Amino acid sequence: MSGFRRRSDDELSRLSDDALVGYIGDARDAGEAEAMQRGIEILAYGLRGDVVVRVRRKLESRSDADVEIVADQVIAGAMLAAFRGESVGEFRALLNRILARRVADYYRSRRGGAREGPLPSEHAGDDEVWGDEPRAQEEISGIWADDAVERALADLSPAHRAVIELRLAGYTSKEAAEIVNVGDELPVGLETPMTADNVDQINSRFRHRLRDLLEEAERSGDPSQDPSENDDD
Amino acid sequence: MTEPDLLLEQFVAAHRAGEDPDPGDYVDRLEGARQAELEALIDAYLARAPRREWDPDAFATSRARDVADAVSRSLAGNAGTWPVLLPQLRTRARLRRDEVVHRLAAALDASDREQKVGAYYHRMEQGRLTAAGVSQRVLEALGAIVGAGADALRRAGEEVEPSLRREAADAVFARTATPDEAYADERPDADGDPVAGTATPAERDEIDELFTGG
Question: Which residue ranges make up each domain of chain A?
């Protein structure tokens, strides 16, 4: 007997990404095909909308069809990689890495010889299908903006990173301070509880660093900042 | 509060309220470095935002359903992400499957064997044709039809994870690998798919070779 317990849709909706991926894996191991399928459905539905928005911003004026295709590749790729067991406990980070890589691949295929499809100019009068012509290389530096966030985060101590992650996730400084102070022990590196003012100061320094990195990327277009590097999806 | 902060706060509030805010509506209010900063912050927020609340009715008509089914097929099949990619490509090309098959057969000089080409293409979309066996000629012809590079199609067809495929196959095929109605009158193989790739060596023809000979 496997011990697998099938959960309701409501229960699955409340699971974190990683817990849901774990549930899907457990369902697969138990041979519970329908439970596995439902988990995949809830994960795909819950993520797809924001992935489409993010890809659209990174591809900017590309056609809707291209955006949809890249977005679906990101979601499917993240799920399949997760089921390979490469990302236990970090599904969202994996998805974000794959998103950066797929966008970089998209542009690389456009500016290299191995493009994926005809150029818009080959379909004159059909812009709805193919969108605009690829942009010049210097115009695509924006795709590394998310990498700048990650690099700025990497400069922080664990405690400071924890509150900035919360700020990036939409929490106020007061909420972020309350969350990291919960529990009997303070986060590593803190001797006194975090306050909203502390979070504001940390956030201010983080944003300053982020601006520096964005300006640096804008100036250099440095390929070394390509977020697809060290990506093992 | 700085302008990027204020706009970010407004974006987050709208997103949390279940709206579908367009980042461009916020980013375009700024210029230069502040615009890049807000773009990065909105992207960072969306990268961490909670999943959209489950809505089975909305799901039923969304493309997320196609993705979910394709993921299941990819897990259970042996054609990598073709179950995800191929339907997307023909959607982008605004082609029905029978139109793709018709053009593919013509490109392979096999218009008189369109049904057999169709059966093989069906297996490609279902993830049930070993990608390594599909010839470069087929991939180039298919790529030209749906607007993709043959090499990209080849890479996409690489297996997800052979050991996982074996585990998942039995559990998933019964639900996800529904035979296509267009080929319902064909003789099914052991898995319930239209017959293809089951010819004996003596019966093998050029089409079998193109789709299974590598």
Answer: 1-135, 141-233
